[in-house]
Fold:
Amino acid sequence: MACHEIAALRVGLMQIIGIKDESLLQHELAELGTAAEAPGPIRQLAQARDFTTLQESYDQSLSDLELRLSQMSKEDPQRAYYQTLVVLNKKIEAELRNFRAGLTAFFQDLEEVHDHMHAIYPVED
Structure:
């Protein structure tokens, strides 16, 4: 069993944040196996270079996970694992939204602070 969504998210975040840890990267890529290179949202997530791509790819990977779960038989021995994985990924999805909202607010606050600076110290032409 593999948590491809989480491993791919970690790889994408490593690139966006700038974490340069080769052993950690190799660990996550080993978790992903061939999913890291197969076309689809897992590969897009692992290769994300910006937060928008990361979030969109993650959302798509979660949709795919939910679809996989919905198609599983109720007797499938892996069903409980996938149900738990969906719940965990829903929490992660909410955290990503919160991070984006926080970063967006920070970005907007910077403009407000910048404007206040220029109110105190006007730009001379």
